[in-house]
Amino acid sequence: MNKQSPFGFHPLIAIVLLASLHWVCATNEALAAELQAGIEGHYRVGHWTAIQSSETAFDSIETRDGDGVEVRYGKSDPLSQWGYVIPGSEAAPLMLRLGDDIVASTRFPTIGSPSRGPAMIPLETPWIVVLGDPLGVDQIGYNEILGRDAVLAVSMPKDPQRLPDSVLGYDGVDLMMIGGSGIELLRQLQPNQQQAISTWITEGGRLFLTLGESASELLSVAPWLKDLLPLQELVTTSIDPSAFETFMSSQSRLEPFRGLQLPSNKGRVLLMGRTTRRVSLPVAVEYNVGFGRITTVAADLESDIFAKWPNRLEMIVRLTGSTLQTEQETVSRKTRATAFDDLAGQLRSTLDQFQIQRNLGFSFVSLIVMALIAIIGPLDYLLINRVLGRPLLGWLSFPIVTIGLSTMLILQARPIKSKTTATETTAVNDTVRCNRIEIFDIDSVQGIGRGFSASYLYSQEASRFDVQVDPTPTLMSLTDNVEEILSVPFGYPGAPFGGIQIAVEDSRLPVYSLDFNEGTSANPTLETVLREMPLASRSSKGLSTRCRFRPQLIETSLEHRPGSELLQGELVNPLPFDLLDGMLIYRNWAYILPTRFPAGGRIDSVDSLRQKNFRWQLTRQRALESASESEAWDPTNTTSTSRIAEMLMFHSAVGGERYTSLNHGPLGFLDFTHVLAGDRCILLGRVQKPLTNFQIDDTDEEEFHAPQGERLSLIRVVLPVLDTETN
Hints:
It contains 15 helices and 38 strands. The strands form 7 sheets. The chain has a 20-stranded mixed beta sheet that branches. Strands 11-10-12-13-18-17-16 form a 7-stranded mixed beta sheet. Strands 1-3-6 form a 3-stranded antiparallel beta sheet. α9 (343-351) runs antiparallel to α14 (641-649) and α10 runs antiparallel to α11. Among the domains are: 35-117, Sandwich (Immunoglobulin-like); 126-326, Class I glutamine amidotransferase (GATase) domain (Rossmann fold, 3-Layer(aba) Sandwich); 362-412, no CATH class; 558-679 and 717-722, no CATH class. With 727 residues, the protein is α+β, with helices and mostly antiparallel strands. It is globular, with a radius of gyration of 31 Å.
């Protein structure tokens, strides 16, 4: 006699169901295992993140943006096994699609210890990618007895196939370390992977490079790395270790070692040493390469000589500055009524204000109330009862006055009409506004340019928009072609932007897509277009745009005045358009330019310009009779976009958090303080016409138009400074 289970199922059926359930779970785990998010499972919220699937074909990736709305990212290269998305929150859903079918599904890793596996890396935790020996950096803060994990996030890929093939995959990385132990890994990199690392460095990344006895082999397998360094020839020599011992006040002796001869007239010398023949030469130099930096040490720090030296790790921390320093100096924060703790949050609060409605003051409202009381009170009584003598007419006068006054208030509360000029397109939907700030940077030494813009779009009514950002004729006058221009959602819940995360998913708004367009052969610009992006009524959404181009400028350079920190020589405006309210910045001095510096204009001698202390200029410091007074930074001030832009561009120059009491995390790449030294100066100014057009389309006719709003366009040009004594 067959026995049945208490649930009424045959035992064989129950076994089959359990086996099916186990197979489904195992299949889901296998699909999740095929996906790699970030670099070795490490990623940051709000930054581009690489998604790799080596065994599953897909054409789009679906996740959630910072507002919890579903967004589908297309692929820039349909044949690549890599895709790139921006996760909007911790543990955001991640789905790979092929057409309308979901071929793999999982979630981004949660926040945790990066030393134990895949994890989301908080903004305050430095993220280091190591190609080779980590030199003990991965052990900073680790204590096995106390059960403490390392305080730094260190990604150490061993398989070259696990490294992204686009510069987008390195977004959010603070430091990359390369040494002789990574030669085999560098040898196996594909050309697109090499180009990705090189572009990341020149666009603002930071590299720590060791060039010792293995320098010739290292630079031979990575010629792209040699192109970034100002090296004429590769010659190694025997170096006396006394410079390192003195620098660290070490009681442990080092043996002489072989290192690469670095040029003494290039870059900023961090540590000067000498050879065993008593010839002086730099042993640690920091080079400005484009917008990034390369800290080079003329030694193989992974060799046995330095591996046994107890001061090796401390020396690396000191040479890299604040990047690897985990114990930051405590800064007393000012009491402020803000939910954000970063300059990005203050910028968001400033741009996220729209004059769509007329502001009615308290006095105006008081007059309306007094007029209503006067009309339906004494005037109505005197006119109806005493003059006309018909009290029953009050049943008509009262609703007429009320309706008339209400109609007047409704007309007064209508949205403000946009003011258009002859050069601007009239908006189809007059209740849509967009506030923008754009900062463009050009390095005339390396011949590269980049641009960043933050835009906040507001809609009075619930709508869906197609959004694209195109270069303007002003930008095209700088270059023949823009290599890429990528627009993505901006901001995410958290302290930097002043938001709190209530739920990861928002099911109220429909899904939208972010498509990559390769362009045409005549205009091969890689760009993104946001399709059907939803906005609820009376809401706004932040978008950011990053672009890269090759500029064409008028050649110009200045000279360093011997024996001082000043400049000399002729200044030429290298831009093909006028520069407004500009200044020339070198080290700690600012040369105030005329209000309008015309295109191609010349100033015979910079000595004729008014000079100011640049840090005093940023802090609005004034000299008094026996002291000085500076203007305190107000984090609650959301009225001056230009003032916030100054802090974004030179935050560390004024003391950073000590002055503003705010961090500089999500937009820290805009800080050019490290350029204000040595053989570089910066030409800064405002541009009258925009460099990019923010356009929307809320119809089905593919007719894009530019919404009205406030805009600020700034440009910085890095110019070379010649030293007549050494060059």
